[in-house]
Design goal:
By secondary structure, this protein is of the alpha/beta class. The chain folds into 3 domains: 162 residues, 2-Layer Sandwich (Beta-Lactamase), CATH 3.30.450; 252 residues, 3-Layer(aba) Sandwich (Rossmann fold), CATH 3.40.50; 201 residues, Glycogen Phosphorylase B (Rossmann fold, 3-Layer(aba) Sandwich), CATH 3.40.50.2000. It is 51% helix and 17% strand. The protein contains 23 helices and 23 strands. It has a 10-stranded mixed beta sheet with strand order 10-11-9-6-12-13-14-17-16-15, with helices on both faces. It has a 6-stranded parallel beta sheet with strand order 20-19-18-21-22-23, with helices on both faces. A hairpin with a 4-residue loop joins strand 15 and strand 16. Helix 7 runs parallel beside helix 23, helix 16 crosses helix 19 and helix 17 packs across helix 21. Bound molecules: adenosine-5'-diphosphate-glucose. Adenosine-5'-diphosphate-glucose (ADQ) binds next to helix 8, strand 18, strand 19 and helix 20.
């Protein structure tokens, strides 16, 4: 039994006892009053009747009439007249035998004997007695004739009406006490319940961060926050599945409503004019956007990016903001405008002709022009300023994306020394020797070390970065924490392998795999027993598209049974077409396609289908779901999300992934057929094995890769990074406070 239940029981018992005691007191008192009242009434009646009785004493008929008149009252049972020797003189019918003249006379005499003088002896006498029919009052009075006692008159009153009255009083009392009890317990109970409800609502509102905090809630709020915090940080390290909801909760806990600011060169939604002058929204073909967009949906905030669409200026407000995603607005894009020269120097020049080939081992020679570097620096400063204008606290969390903004972290740090700056480098980091090629390697490294956390896809890229820092800068390496300490400031260097949202939006809304296959088969004019391989890429020399097509050619050459049956569809989004190397690639891929098709095509068969355009995600996913194999042949790739998208798309557990060992994804998707894309022979054999693979084996491999992706999804990627950043910020806040108090600088 709980304490409250015991208390209520004790109160009920107490109240019952109180009611019983009160009703007993009231009962006895009322009884006394009523008896006394009946007694006085009886005496009055007898005294009043005494003269008449004395007058008619000798006339027995008259005496009897007098007695009958006395007994006619409904509460009088009977009356009797007794002689002086206590023999019966006259009696009314129904007079109780128990009170005969003898009996009463003896008791009156006894009473008179104890009395003093004659006056007293002449006084009336009465007593209450109990008969089987109930209580009665017996009253007697001496009848006098000229002062002489000639006899006795007796009157017997029925007192049962008093018991009825008592019972009524008792019931009344119990009801009154009952009502009082209900009021005494019920009203405080209702008030307490109401107050508790109000209290709960207020507490919930405060915990959600709404409204002003009243003083009485502060102690409990801080206790609860601490408890929730402890539970949440236990959950953050919990290996269970990450979802958009879990990420949101983690962010709410760490950010308390502050907005996240992401800086990336590419914007997630591009507004373009169509040929007939209308505005359409495009999703760019970008791994970075694919990964980060679901994060922004989950945590809102601002995405600062270059406004590159032809209709971008028409769709922003006065402060260059536009709310997205269209129809489900949950965050802002802040567009930054770049001139032709800026784009040329910062984007095409230093970023894509310098850093991109420098970081990818794909045998394209990096080009470093001093003018490009100047533009890169100036544009980095422009973006850093815009980011600083978008934050809403002195120690915000800022996510800087990719190689376009290597200088931004240090630039932001200058204005916001307490900011937590997270940089994610989406492409590989070369070894220190290769990094040495760059004339501005030191500036790049120093720029990046302005960040609090620097993330790469793999530990190998982290190691390469740390080696570069060791080789080119005066810094201290904190091996215990995988960090670099430069001028007293620490930057953690960690691997955070990027991934996809899970489940992927485009898969959820896609038609069934059979329907996708039927549609693609119709579109490409394939025979019913045809086999389809696909490649999906930005047209970039690092993706190994040429090597892929050559491997398809070799497959058809070495395995004639696939000729006329196996087709390879290459979805190729034109990319960086202003750069000569990309134009060359475009032409090379086109010529290669023509050559292979010329060699193996027939009237109704093309081995290579080159779909050279940007495809919106629903179309890309239709191809993933239709294909028998997907070949990802990158020569060097930070992660490669195409490989992960293909696996995510195969809810039917069919299809085989052939994957280059030079992708970050190959470390996670180990059930793919892993190949060296330079080795054309073994790559073509892997494709042949994929086309011959039994359904059971396909299912087993696919199931296992899907299990990995569902766990290691992009919410986990973002969650881990943001939690690390937030913890670092908490540590620095504490260190800052300690330093303020002691007047010493925070040690790292
Ligand atoms: P990317 O080099 O852009 O990304 P990747 O990871 O393969 O490469 O992502 C490409 C994205 O573009 C995918 O979402 C894909 O669906 C889409 N895409 C490709 N071709 C397309 C087409 N023809 N039409 C439409 N969409 C197309 C960089 C690094 C990668 C790293 C990501 C994320 O180079 O190594 O995986 O960032 O960090």
């Amino acid at each position: 039994m709980t304490r409250v239940a015991r208390l209520i029981l004790a109160l009920i018992v107490g109240l019952a006892l109180l009611t019983w005691a009160a009703s007993s007191v009231v009962q006895t008192t009322a009884l006394e009053w009523f008896d006394r009242d009946a007694q006085s009434r009886a005496e009055l009646v007898l005294i009043g009747a005494r003269p008449a009785l004395a007058d008619s004493w000798d006339d027995s008929a008259s005496l009897n009439r007098q007695l009958v008149t006395l007994a006619s009252d409904q509460r009088v049972i009977g009356a009797a007249a007794c002689n002086a020797d206590f023999s019966t003189r006259s009696i009314t019918p129904g007079f109780p035998n128990e009170f005969s003249c003898m009996e009463v006379g003896a008791r009156v005499r006894a009473a008179n004997a104890t009395a003093g003088n004659a006056n007293e002896r002449m006084r009336e006498w009465s007593t209450v007695a109990l008969l089987p029919t109930g209580r009665v009052l017996v009253s007697a009075i001496p009848i006098l004739d000229q002062g002489q006692e000639i006899g006795l008159a007796i009157l017997v009153h029925d007192l049962t009406y008093i018991e009825q009255r008592e019972a009524r009083v008792q019931t009344f009392l119990i009801v009154v006490f009952g009502i009082l009890a209900v009021m005494a317990f019920g009203i405080p109970l209702l008030v307490t319940k109401g107050a508790r409800r109000e209290w709960n609502l207020e507490l919930r509102r405060l915990l959600r961060g709404g409204g002003k905090q009243s003083r009485e809630f502060q102690p409990i709020l801080s206790d609860m926050r601490e408890l929730i915090g402890r539970m949440a940080s236990e959950r953050e390290d919990d290996p269970g599945r990450w979802t958009a909801e879990r990420l949101k909760q983690v962010l709410n806990r760490h950010l308390h409503g502050e907005k996240v600011v992401i800086l990336a060169n590419r914007e997630p939604y591009i507004h373009q004019y169509t040929a007939n002058g209308e505005i359409e929204v495009q999703h760019p073909a970008s791994g970075l956007v694919t990964a980060l967009e679901p994060i922004m949906r989950a945590c809102s905030g601002v995405w600062v990016a270059h406004g590159s669409g032809t209709a971008d200026r028409e769709t922003v407000d006065r402060s260059d903001h536009v709310r997205v995603p269209p129809g489900e607005e949950s965050y802002y894009i802040r567009r930054v405008w770049l001139s032709e020269e800026e784009q040329q120097g910062y984007y095409y020049g230093f970023s894509n002709e310098g850093l991109w080939p420098l970081c990818h081992v794909a045998h394209a020679r990096p080009v470093f022009r001093a003018e490009d570097w100047r533009q890169y620096r100036a544009v980095n400063q422009r973006f850093a300023d815009v980011v600083c204008s978008e934050v809403d606290s002195r120690d915000p969390i800022i996510l800087v994306q990719d190689y376009h903004f290597a200088l931004v972290p240090a630039m932001i740090r200058k204005h916001l020394p307490a900011a937590t700056i997270l940089v994610f480098w989406h492409i590989p980091w070369p070894n220190d020797e290769r990094m040495g090629i760059c004339p501005w390697r030191n500036e790049l490294l120093e720029g990046l070390l302005g960040s609090s956390i620097l993330g790469f896809h793999t530990q190998l890229h982290c190691n390469n970065f740390l080696d570069s820092v060791d080789r080119y800068l005066e810094t201290r390496r904190d091996r215990e924490h995988n960090a670099v300490v430069m001028r007293g400031r620490r930057t953690l260097v960690r691997p955070y392998p990027i991934s996809l949202e899970w489940p992927v939006r485009w898969v959820e809304s896609a038609p069934s795999a059979e329907e996708c296959r039927a549609q693609v088969w119709r579109e490409l004019g394939l025979k019913p027993d045809a086999l389809l391989g696909i490649g999906v890429d930005r047209l970039d020399y690092t993706k190994g598209v040429e090597e892929r097509l050559l491997a398809v050619e070799l497959l058809l050459e070495r395995h004639p049974e696939f000729r006329g049956r196996f087709s390879f569809a290459q979805l190729a989004a034109p990319s960086r077409t202003k750069i000569e190397r990309y134009r060359q690639l475009n032409e090379a891929v086109e010529q290669l396609t023509e050559r292979i098709n010329y060699r193996f095509a027939s009237k109704d068969y093309n081995p290579i289908v080159l779909l050279r355009s940007h495809h919106e995600p629903p179309e890309v996913f239709r191809f993933y779901r239709a294909a028998d194999l997907c070949y990802v042949s990158s020569l060097h790739d930070g992660m490669n999300l195409v490989a992960k998208e293909f696996v995510a798309a195969r809810t039917d557990l069919k299809g085989v992934l052939v994957l280059s060992e030079f992708t970050g994804a190959a470390r996670e998707l180990t059930e793919a057929l892993i190949v060296n894309p330079y080795d054309l022979e073994s790559s073509s054999e892997a494709m042949a094995a994929a086309l011959r693979m039994s359904r059971d084996e396909q299912r087993d491999r696919m199931r296992s890769m899907r299990a990995v992706l569902s766990q290691f999804n992009v919410y986990r990627w973002a969650g881990k990074m943001l939690v690390d950043a937030a913890r670092l910020r908490d540590q620095e806040r504490v260190a800052g406070r300690l330093a303020e108090r002691s007047g010493i600088g925070a040690a790292v």
